[in-house]
Design goal:
single chain, mainly alpha, 19 helices, globular
């Protein structure tokens, strides 16, 4: 049976979920050996004796998941077998964990630590069960991929750059789209600004991670949607066959896993948040085909960066990770502002998306209705930003502190109005970039306003960051693509 494009996408998503499982598995033990656990000396002693029996078994599961993911990407039979084995082990170990914790009464009283442990246990049982069902279904098919099942040879197999070469690095950076690093960067930095971060070195490291995360995520999703990009973005190295999809996926996942690992060292809460983000990125291409889901699905992934920044700045101390009104409103501002960016971004790809079966909102409903929905997103983002500043400045602040955020939010509002006005005038998708560009400016400016309001001493750094965004955006290789 010939492997269809949707099945290829599903197989890659499954492989990336297995890689995420490896990260979650290894990260748990990093956190555990770092001293995290249920509060109380008695509980800690009981857990220590119990958990000491499992490191080698869990390491084996992580290794099998990683090998299986590679096998699925390469269309090898051992990928299915590894999925079956790892899923069986996960269910077994998960059930043992749950019965032990229930009999020892370790889930109660509920705390962040016990909820986290329950999440891990449930992920083992439910994820393992799902993996077993999928593996059995795959194994019922042909035991080997036929020649028709193997990925078709494309231009990228002719003379692609070697993964360890400088040529690959240059082409990969183009694929990452550096001019959009600042989107994920400011989302994470806004969360950091609302935290209790005191270390300059840590703040710089987190900021670099947040800046790069968009590029890694963008390259990963690009490796799964070459079909539509070949029509809308022919300049991209992946489309031209200058680099391999497999190599791009490997480097992207490696970058995301390394970023996640460093963030997990800051706070074990990031195990859950980073895993959810990676799963979201790996499954976005499939979700994008549904008009009602695309903008929202992409937006919650970026909104997670704000939460990740907040908990990274605070560390694992539960008393510091209370969700304040300012944080909640900032997350909402990120969510709706980015959802608007995604929706307006679809305008430039309407023909390509329609041809390749991506039923985005502009494809299904056309320009006018999509523009109205975009207006709602933009208004909600602006209101959320304004309310965030209100809560930050609940106490009277000096004019010197208020002025920079005020200027930034007014600039963001101006850009947002410009974007929405231009969006309602779009009749040619080739001119859609004129509306998309101010949407990105508005996103960065509004979150910059929140950041400088929460951290006035960061104002100069934020201005430099915005100037770097303007410069890299000007350097982008194709004016019509953002």
């Amino acid at each position: 049976m010939r492997e269809t494009a949707s099945y290829i996408s599903a197989r890659h998503i499954l492989a990336y979920l297995m890689f995420a499982g490896t990260l979650l598995d290894f990260a748990f033990w990093v956190v555990y050996f770092g001293g995290a656990g249920l509060s109380g000396e008695t509980n800690r002693q009981v857990i220590s004796v119990y958990e000491s029996a499992f490191p080698y078994a869990d390491i084996l599961i992580g290794f099998i998941l990683m090998v299986g993911g590679i096998g699925l990407i390469r269309c090898k039979h051992y990928g299915k077998l590894c999925l079956l084995i790892a899923s069986s082990m996960a269910v077994y170990l998960g059930i043992i964990d749950i019965t032990f914790y229930i009999r020892q009464g370790l889930y109660l009283p509920l705390s962040i630590s016990s909820i986290f442990e329950l999440f891990i246990n449930a992920a083992c049982v439910l994820g393992g069960t799902a993996g077993l069902l999928i593996a059995c279904r795959l194994l019922r098919e042909n035991n080997k991929y036929s020649s028709e099942d193997k990925p078709r040879t494309t231009a990228e197999d002719n003379h692609p750059a070697y993964i360890c070469s400088l040529s690959f690095l240059r082409l990969y950076v183009i694929t990452m789209r550096p001019y959009l690093f600042f989107v994920s960067g400011i989302a994470g930095i806004a969360g950091l600004a609302l935290s209790e971060l005191t270390s300059l070195a840590s703040g710089i490291m987190y900021a670099v991670i947040f800046l790069l995360s968009y590029g890694f995520g963008q390259a990963l999703t690009d490796s799964m949607q070459v079909d539509t990009d070949s029509l809308s973005s022919p300049y991209r190295p992946l489309v031209q066959g200058k680099i391999r999809r497999r190599d791009v996926a490997i480097v992207s996942l490696g970058g995301l896993f390394l970023s996640g690992f460093l963030l997990i060292l800051a706070s074990w809460i990031n195990i859950v948040l980073c895993t959810l983000a990676i799963i979201g990125l790996a499954s976005y291409t499939y979700i994008k085909r549904r008009w009602w889901a695309g903008p929202f699905y992409n937006a919650w992934i970026v909104a997670l960066l704000c939460l990740i920044g907040f908990v990274s700045g605070n560390g694992s101390a539960s008393e510091s990770n209370i969700i304040s009104p300012a944080l909640l409103l900032t997350v909402l501002a990120v969510f709706f502002a980015y959802a608007n960016f995604v929706l307006t971004g679809y305008y430039k790809d309407i023909s390509a998306d329609r041809t390749t079966g991506y039923l985005t909102m502009p494809v299904v409903f056309g320009f006018n209705i999509s523009a109205i929905v975009s207006d709602i997103f933009a208004i909600t983002a602006i209101i959320s930003t304004a309310l965030t500043l209100y809560y930050i400045y609940e106490d009277i602040a000096s004019l010197k502190e208020i002025l920079p955020p005020l200027i930034l939010i007014l600039a963001g509002l101006t850009m947002s109005i410009t974007a929405q006005r231009r969006l309602h005038q779009v009749i040619d998708e080739k001119k859609a970039y004129r509306a998309i560009t101010p949407v990105v400016h508005s996103f960065i400016l509004m979150l910059s306003a929140i950041t400088t309001a929460a951290r006035p001493n960061w104002t100069i750094s934020i201005i430099i960051l915005y100037a770097a965004f303007v410069f890299t955006l000007w350097l982008r290789p194709m004016k019509e693509q953002i």
